Amino acid sequence: xxxxxxSSFLMANLLATFLLCVIxxxxxxxxxxxxxxxxxxxxxxxxxNKSAESNAMVTEETxxxxxxxxxxIRDTINLTIEEPDVIFFKQxxxxxYGLPDTLIREGYKSKTVKIWAMKNKKEDLASNWxxxxxxxxxxxxxxxxxxxxxxxxxxxxEYNIIYTSTGNIEKIFDNKYSNRSYQFYYGEKDIIKKIxxxxxxxxxxxxxxxx
Length: 211
Fold this sequence. Notes:
2 domains; ten-stranded antiparallel beta sheet; globular
């Protein structure tokens, strides 16, 4: 009888010990999974932030109205290209209205091309309009002219493009029709650091790259 009670007591102790181990193991797994999840999330966030920082550009846009300071706005842009060019700034900040997106055409070196908008209509400004493209000996656009459009109430304008000795755009201006100009400044590795926009010789807008 004594042996039976002793055996029952041992079995109960073993069962209790077993259940305790199961509970402790389960808790340990939950903690491990939670910790693993936290580490994984932190790593993912860290990589994402690092990627965003390495491919992000911070700019400050300052505006003047009739020569009087109006406001400054900072903007962070996640880049999908290696380095922003003039066309990137044109599209993102609505600059250089009407300037062609393709500035280099090697097949048009030292040529001037005139293109009427609607080829099936008379070459007449009363019902049609044209554009003129002039390229230098490297195939770079150096002059663009838009004739204006009577039927769509748009005035003519032009862009004269000046390049630096290293091939970057230094200035784009229209002194004949709109009296507007854009000045470009570069930093290391020919990165665009600043763009200034003038109306009638008065500074109207400045875009500065901070990062």
